[in-house]
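Dear support,

Our group has been running a series of protein-ligand predictions, and this particular one with beta-D-glucopyranose is the one our PI (initials K.S.) wants archived with full inputs and outputs. We had some confusion internally about which version of the output was final, so please treat the block below as the authoritative record. The input we submitted was:
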Amino acid sequence: MRALAIVFFVLSFFAQNISGQSNTIDKRVDSLLRLMTLEEKVGQLHQITSDFAATGPITRDGEKQDRVRKGMVGSYLNVTGAARTRSLQEIAMQSRLKIPLLFAQDVIHGFRTIFPLPLAEAASWDMDAIERSARIAAKEAAASGIHWTFAPMVDISRDPRWGRVMEGAGEDTYLGSQIARARVKGFQGKSIGDTDALLACAKHFAAYGAAEGGRDYNTTDMSWRRLYEVYLPPFQAAREAGVASFMNSFNDINGIPATGHTYLQRKLLKGDWNFKGIVVSDWGSVGEMVNHGYAADLADAAKKAILAGCDMDMESRAYSAHLAALVKKKEVDIKLLDDAVRRILRKKFELGLFKDPYRFSNEAREQSIWNEKTHLNAARDIAKKSIVLLKNEAIGTEKNTLLPMRGIKNKKIALLGPLVKAIDDNNGFWSYSWPDDSVRVVSLWKGMMNKFGADNSLLYSKGCNITGNDTSGFAAARQVALQSDLIIISVGESANMSGEAKSRSSIHLPGVQEQLVQEMTALGKPVIVLISAGRPLIFNWIADNVPAIVYTWWLGTEAGNAIADVLSGDYNPSAKLPMTFPRSEGQIPIYYNYFSTGRPFKQDNDNNYVTAYKDLQNSPRYPFGYGLSYSRFEYGRVKLSADTISQTQQLSANIQVSNTGSYVGEEVVQLYIQDVTASLVRPVRELKAFQKIKLAPGESREVTFVITKKELSFYLEDLRFIAEPGQFNVFIGGSSLAAEKASFYLR
Ligand code: BGC
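Confirmed final output from the archive:
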């Protein structure tokens, strides 16, 4: 009887048109679930990785193949390519119930076409461009058989020592929430199940970015208020945007590992937020609860994780080894297991895999997308929008700035530094290398040759390495510099100095690079410094002494072209920092929206019995939201539509912004709010809105923001989200230092 039922089931799911409107996915999931053995159910919760080093078909691994054939694996990660995913799916199709595999990958900032690091993209404050970048990544990855990306990472972080800041949107909750939404929309496209879309994954739930000391995988300990106010909103935004999955995290929060956190996963996410998708563990994080001292052994870890609401076990093999026994011993209710399996099966149905398990593994589509020119154009577009102009000071008697290098001709330009000819570094951490990277990835050298090579002569010398104290290359660099009219020095981190497990106690520019800049600057020629990194770095001498500084992060496949676009003025830089840049590691954690203290400093050098360091000025090196343009933007007065509003009314805040420079330019107009007096201490100001506008020289525009109760609310100790009556200040400007201010009252 059972065998007959299976035959019917299999036939019905592979027939294209039997479904009918009333046959909802939930019903199909339920009827499939009824046919599954306990072991097959556990199999769906088991995610394993391919063998990274494998060069042939990934299905070589006999033990894993066998598990797939027995229906004991629900998902694979790190299997790439239409052919490989197809061959593995073929094995899954030999299983009793022919439940297809889900193929997952970390498609973080591009797949075939590499886009800027997520942190760099965040600097663009351009939600359309960010969405487009994720859209293209999804198209390319989906054509290679991938169904599911472990992105976006929406962890807020206020600590640039943490190597993973490169993967997020920086320090701010509001900006981070907008970006979370844009990325989810980009990855998931119009609809899950389209063959150009991926399931997205909001990670790492939660507070992974608050690791103590910025040390990866470390403890987080914070008030619930702070968790709700600062760290959770980007996850909530991803949820609202329909994200298909969440990943929990390695850290513990106030003593409970996130992977075993019942309140976060069951009560908040699946309960209050009504999340119906998959919760996957981080790599091995179920098993790591033993190391945390929170689970006695792997069986206990499996039990704690499933009870807490973690549906899928990535690579701990805790569920596959112990869940069935736990259910048999009645230590885990089968209903919990069924709920987890349902969530996974539902996504497989939504993806259309029961109709055609190979629909994403399409070699023809993979081939045709491989060299899609429009993807490169989009990568160049967002790369130039991600570049931050930190300094562009007038020099010489004519008081000209070095940038832009507009119309420069018949000059000798020295390109110095360890990163000028770098190729792979441009792709940054969490990216894929392809065999043709050496011709496809545009190095700084190549980009500069493309732009300036025909009319000028470009010279090169490496000068030094990124790390180490070898200065023997300085002499050759000096020779090149001496022959040149202009010196451009490219310094920074290497790509693998930021990323997972890449926390650093020193975030100063590594090695002798700053010394190289000092020696070249001493020659008295004009110097421009370009800094590439996956985090805010510290480079105080350069900041004080070099007239032109451009922060280029890691920009992906089109890096060199994008940098040349900005240097030449073909693109007028518009990016703004998504993280505060400190002057010293001693200032970390550093962020603009700190709480008001009882002893605030009044001036930058004020350190006498105020909240300050004795040995450091108070300001950061560069504030959050800061970034220059070749244009100048002037702000008028903030005008509010009312002096007082009620809880149900809204207020509009207007400001006139004028481009008083001589270039067409874009400005990110930022609105910050301060709750002046409240029943709990509030931040000095918080970003609540922004608009990116484009103005021609001489053009002015009235920018209007609407403020509602939501922008004025905060979490009380009991986690009620309310707006308290009283005075509020509104600041509008081009960075978190925005000076134009007005006040109003909430009744
Ligand atoms: C990372 C995750 C990632 C996973 C799979 C883990 O080490 O923390 O962000 O998605 O590996 O590669």
